[in-house]
Q: What sequence folds into this?
């Protein structure tokens, strides 16, 4: 059994990496264990949208601070602040857009409503059937495929040992902490942080804790490179579309359309009808997209609990064990909430409140 770490972090997604980095900054010795490669989970396959317009009102303070973290990472993660528009095409969509964006503006997001003519001047390629639009100058994106490389480098610079290709197979409480067993080795530490995304439930169960974690199978589609068609992040009032054109000309389309599969089975499978629905909406919004060829669609698992707020705090009934995950929009918010979690474990007062994993949850609908 090897063990000179102060804490073992299980899961090398954005949340686990950001927490480990904060713990090291604060003087602890973390050790990170990842089943595959750092950033191979949701953190490395997501759509990369950093949009305040699609964040939950209750998480806006976290998203605003998360944005600042991404900005500080800069070109190493492909960060771009392009601004973003969210569009409505019917009166009922316009009502929805106004109601939702007003609440987000009250929560601190600098969202304004713009006239269709202003939108058309800024983004001439979009459909002329827009009846209402909102704009947020802070919106932008980053390149999620760079997540692993970026955080692996940061962990190395911080001197944090990282064990990749090391799925945790067993967790045990010992007299003075935890034994964390992988196929190759067993690691011991007085503290434990579970940050395993959509795979949290079986890990917590190894310590007899039942976390109500569920997974959505989100789909993303990328096109071939095309001439410039849009310059900002484009969304739809219903939340069923996010679209941006990357610097190389390819267009990334998402919006939470569901694929098939479970985290235990592997990466999941894109469904033709889901991809077709997503692309039909995208081509309605951006008609020229209809002439651009699709290169690939893929899926990833996004974890959530029944109230759709994060799990971030002490693991119920297990002293010195912690859990961090299930953050809606966790690519945007991840770097910041990881720091908060690190502060909590270091015994510091976090700048914003965490989300008690032991709170009561509603029955899933
Ligand atoms: C397709 C898709 C699109 C998305 N688009 C956006 C977006 O545009 N903007 C946005 O803000 N958010 C987006 N999200 C959400 C965001 O990606 C996630 O909220 C965030 O990446 C979750 O980070 P995480 O560290 O909790 O989980 P993950 O990144 O999944 O990391 C968990 C890690 O734990 C590891 N692990 C699991 N089991 C074990 C084990 N037994 N032992 C060791 N390691 C283990 C996994 O291999 C994985 O690397 C999207 C999600 C998906 C799936």
A:
């Amino acid at each position: 059994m090897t063990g000179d770490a102060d804490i073992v972090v299980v899961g090398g997604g954005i949340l686990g990496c950001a927490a480990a980095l904060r713990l090291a900054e604060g003087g602890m010795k973390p050790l990170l264990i990842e089943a595959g490669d750092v950033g191979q989970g949701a953190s490395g396959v997501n759509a990369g949208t950093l949009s305040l317009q699609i964040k939950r009102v209750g998480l806006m303070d976290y998203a605003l601070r998360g944005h600042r973290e991404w900005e500080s990472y800069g070109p190493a993660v492909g960060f771009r602040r392009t601004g973003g528009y969210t569009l409505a095409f019917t009166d009922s969509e316009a009502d929805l857009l106004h109601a939702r964006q007003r609440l987000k503006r009250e929560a601190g997001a600098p969202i304004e409503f713009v006239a269709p003519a202003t939108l058309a001047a800024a983004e001439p390629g979009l459909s002329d059937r827009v009846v209402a639009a909102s704009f947020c100058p802070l919106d932008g994106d980053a390149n999620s495929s760079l997540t692993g490389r970026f955080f692996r480098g940061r962990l190395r610079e911080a001197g944090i040992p990282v064990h990749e290709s090391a799925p945790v197979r067993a967790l045990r409480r010992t007299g003075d902490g935890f034994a964390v067993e992988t196929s190759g080795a067993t690691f011991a530490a007085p503290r434990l942080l579970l940050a395993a995304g959509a795979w949290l439930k079986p890990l917590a169960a190894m310590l007899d804790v039942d976390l109500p974690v569920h997974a959505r199978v989100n789909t993303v589609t990328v096109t071939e490179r095309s001439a410039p068609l849009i310059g900002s992040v484009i969304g739809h009032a219903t939340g069923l579309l996010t679209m941006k054109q990357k610097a190389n000309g390819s267009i990334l389309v998402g919006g939470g359309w569901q694929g098939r599969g479970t985290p235990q089975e592997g990466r999941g499978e894109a469904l033709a009808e889901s991809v077709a629905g997503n692309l039909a909406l995208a081509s309605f919004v951006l008609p020229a997209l209809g002439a651009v060829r699709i290169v690939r669609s893929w899926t990833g698992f996004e974890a959530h609990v029944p109230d759709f707020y994060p799990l971030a705090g002490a693991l119920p009934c297990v002293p010195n064990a912690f859990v961090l995950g299930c953050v809606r929009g966790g690519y945007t918010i991840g770097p910041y909430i990881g720091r908060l979690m690190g502060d909590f474990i270091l015994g510091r007062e976090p700048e914003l409140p965490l989300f008690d994993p032991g709170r009561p949850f509603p029955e899933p609908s």
